[in-house]
Amino acid sequence: MSPLKWSLIAVGVVVLLVAGLVVFATVVARVAGSLPSASATPNRTAEPATAPSPSAAEQRAYLATLKSIDPGLTVNTERVMRRAGRVCERILHGADGGTMTLEKYTVAELSGGNATISEAQAKQVIAAVKVWCKPV
Prior knowledge:
Distance between the termini: 76 Å
Structural class: mainly alpha
Largest sheet: none
Strand content: under 5%
Oligomer: single chain
Shape: elongated
Order of helices and strands: HHHHH
Helix content: 55-70%
Number of helices: 5
């Protein structure tokens, strides 16, 4: 084969590789959420994304409740409060069509890492969150 044919084949392969990398990068960016999807439309009827925050006293009481259930639940206060916020959002806005009960969601949200809770303990957690998690 002549050097010209090899050069044309090499250029073709490079063009295909670059095109493939561009498509791959676009898909990865969309999956990661950094680019809007072509079909994405804003939902103006969506509920607020943030849950109310507890006062310092309410946070201390919540942490004490978790510690009484399992001290491993309170290892990382920032993570604990993030999870509590997600439980609060679920309380306020429902399950978004999911099949998981609030108790099962709470078990899944809080279990793992340093502790695992039961559905009975999840009910205690939900009651503790409801002290400060109220519609604004």
